[in-house]
Design brief:
2 copies of one chain form a homodimer. The first copy, chain A, is α/β, with parallel strands linked by helices. Chain A is globular, with a radius of gyration of 20 Å. A 6-stranded parallel β-sheet of chain A has the order 1-11-8-7-5-6. A 3-stranded parallel β-sheet of chain A has the order 3-2-4, sandwiched between helices. Chain A has a two-stranded antiparallel ribbon with strand order 9-10. Chain A folds into 2 domains: 90 residues, Rossmann fold (3-Layer(aba) Sandwich); 133 residues, 3-Layer(aba) Sandwich (Rossmann fold), CATH 3.40.50.720. The first copy, chain A, contains 10 helices and 11 strands. In chain A, strand 5, helix 7 and strand 6 form a beta-alpha-beta unit. Strand 6 of chain A pairs antiparallel with strand 6 of chain B, so a sheet runs across the interface. Chains A, B: Catalyzes the oxidation of 5,10-methylenetetrahydrofolate to 5,10-methenyltetrahydrofolate and then the hydrolysis of 5,10-methenyltetrahydrofolate to 10-formyltetrahydrofolate. Chains A, B: Pfam families: THF_DHG_CYH, THF_DHG_CYH_C. Chains A, B: Its EC number is 1.5.1.5, 3.5.4.9.
């Protein structure tokens, strides 16, 4: 019997933990967890993302601040805002919504966020901490952190003796995911577009994580029977069966046929997707606990 | 026919490149490459290492500075020295010889070295740069950088389609080595003490790198015929055949039997060992080129 992970459900339980811990932190130390979200320009999709992050932050009991800047904002003014937020003790997490309008240099802005407030986990210092296994002071980017929650709830904390294969080697997902799996004692293989015999490599995986952006690339015969399959791809494909010009979302895994082989699988949509924003809240809570000298909850 | 890599020979060719580029940099921009080595206390082995680094730096044409501090040096005085070296434009590389005598906090000292002068590649910023594939501004720790020179001279720059297996996941070697191999497009597996069926995992490797510290653990039947085997282990074992109480150095690979299977292999001693100090010189030269706004040579 295959278990289909309900990402919305897991995300809701993460949010529940964040809510309780936010209230407990406030009670024990008087610290209200604070998240600042910065958005530049008028991109509707970016505004929608930022809106839902703000709503979720309020739901968690955070102080939620949004800074909306015009598209023609200058680099130095954006940098000055980040510096102000870095110095503000009531703000524990800073998120600058990407992409920034041209010609702003987003890399310089991201790297100027204090690593301990970098709740997106994008700074080179947080990458270095993750790479060297320092999860006690580092912050991990939200999507791999969310995927690891699924892995832990399926296999526990210790993945000793399990083979994990990550397909995809992006800095945003594949590399940090591999480091998290390694840190949990899995034997980890990172496969990618240059890998030979990819299907064979994947068949070796007890935990298979796909993050390549190729619709339904992972087929049933790529999967070891009983394996845990985590699908990080979100691809929009034509769905003529729904009517002319209609589309639907699919992952990197051919869900229907792989479901017949896998032990545990995440759907798309409704799998890893809902976890990203939940882990953003978790990271902000973790940052607030550390700032207050308290031990954050485990997710 | 198995190729046995002569590490001394390769190291000498790296040093030759460093010498020429040091002279060329001085001629073109007036910049003399500068390396500062800091040693605290009287440990004879540490003094021997520092001595050979200083001699090699001079041989390369560097300005070579050694700071010898007493064992009872205070943390703040050592930190002040590092701050002075950070600010000194004639110094491009700073190396603090480890281990530091107790109770000095070596982690704080290492992290206080400017990342662009951290020629040992130990700072969290350099770990993050390597983890995110930024080799243009980062500095890579010397032993994995040296092992990669062997890999490049055997397989070229692009390892697409090759499977690499690294046994060992230390921050000093295993993890950075895996990242370098991945960056060169290999499909990379990181195996370690918790790996199940280690021999089977290793048999899959076109490039097998062992860094576990277990004498002659890798046997002939762990190795794919024709594979490149790089042995980073240095283990001292009893050698009664040389007389009572005598010892000898062996690697993590059973050299004699594996030589019969591998296509290319490094010996111990005389393989990776001599590369570490050569890559320290290379890193210092790279740092000096960057400080002068010039493109460093490739190694």
């Amino acid at each position: 019997m295959t278990t289909v992970i309900d990402g919305k459900n897991v995300a809701a339980s993460v949010i529940q933990t964040v809510k309780s811990a936010t209230a407990a932190l406030e009670k024990s130390s008087g610290v209200t967890t604070g998240l600042a979200v910065v958005i530049v320009g008028d991109d509707p999709a970016s505004h929608a993302y930022v809106g839902s992050k703000g709503r979720m932050a309020k739901e968690c009991g955070f102080k939620s601040v949004q800074h909306t800047l015009p598209a023609e904002t200058k680099q130095e003014d954006l940098a000055a805002l980040v510096a102000t937020l870095n110095a503000d003790p009531s703000i524990h997490g800073i998120l600058v919504q990407l992409p920034l309008p041209k010609p702003l240099d987003s890399e310089a802005i991201i790297q100027s966020i204090l690593p301990e407030k970098d709740v997106d986990g994008l700074s080179v210092v947080n990458a270095g901490k993750l790479a060297t296994g320092d999860l006690k002071t580092g912050l991990v980017s939200c999507t791999p952190a969310g995927a690891m929650v699924f892995v832990r709830r399926t296999h526990g904390e210790d993945l000793s003796g399990l083979n994990a294969v990550v397909i995809g080697r992006s800095n945003l997902f594949g590399k940090p995911m591999a480091q998290l799996l390694l840190n949990a004692n899995a034997t980890v293989t990172i496969a990618h577009s240059r890998t030979k015999n990819l299907a064979e490599v994947c068949r070796n995986a007890d935990i298979l994580v796909a993050a390549v952006g190729r619709p339904e690339m992972v087929r049933a015969d790529w999967v070891k029977p009983g394996a845990t399959v985590i699908d990080v791809g979100i691809n929009r494909v034509a769905a003529p069966e729904r009517g002319e010009g209609k589309t639907r979302l699919v992952g990197d895994v051919a869900f229907e046929e792989v479901s017949a082989v896998a032990g545990t699988i995440t759907p798309v949509p409704g799998g890893v997707g809902p976890m990203t924003i939940a882990m953003l809240m978790a990271n902000t809570l973790i940052a607030a606990h550390r700032a207050a000298g308290q031990t954050p909850p485990q997710f």
